[in-house]
Amino acid sequence: MEKDLVSVIMPAYNCEKYISATIDTVTAQTYKNWELIIVDDCATDGTANVIQRYCESDSRIKYIKLEKNSGAAVARNKGIELAKGKYIAFLDSDDIWLPEKLKKQVEFMNSGKYPFSCTNYERINEKGERIGKIIKCKNICTYNTCVWMNPIGNSTVMLDTEQLGKIYVPNIRKRNDYALWLKIMRTTGCRAYGLPEVLTKYTVRDGSISSKKTSLVKYQYRLYRDCENFSSLRAAFHVCMWGVIKILHIK
Domain 6-211 class? Predict the structure, then answer.
């Protein structure tokens, strides 16, 4: 019985080309007790029109527009604030869920009473084609293991608000999903539990900041300094180790 509501949080900014396919994978879920909260970060393309068409046909889809462009962290936090579900799941506006994603993950979390879970995911290109890379989640992630490298895909995460409460995303422009995982683990002492099955497809967009590893260095440093309050020396050391791990393809 689908008694537990899942609140799906989706920030949206200039994603007119992709968001229909992403929303379709939510409406196609075999688990039906969900609400989709789409937070428009002041998109300048036709994103709003696409979302509003979906809202007209499905009352489970909610549309909120921010007053000004503020970044994904602010958009996610607005969604978290409005979420009514026991569970919160995150979904980027260009990623894809397999049809049984919510069903399998809710069952997984209920069976183990897990507060925080993630799954494997597969990387695809903008055409939806496989690019030969599957990212496997760890069975258990702790703060001490996660602080070196983020093994958790944003669109694979589900949180139990009854166990964790609502924990908000640190307001940094980039790497804010990773900052949230660290914040949850650091402040609650909980672990993230992995469901070892590919249930999400992550879109690697040409020219996106996440596709340019070198440009992420400064954001990684700011995460350690501003969110984790590391000393400048410790932050620099962690960034160096993060870079080595990236080079060795250990992720």
Answer: alpha beta
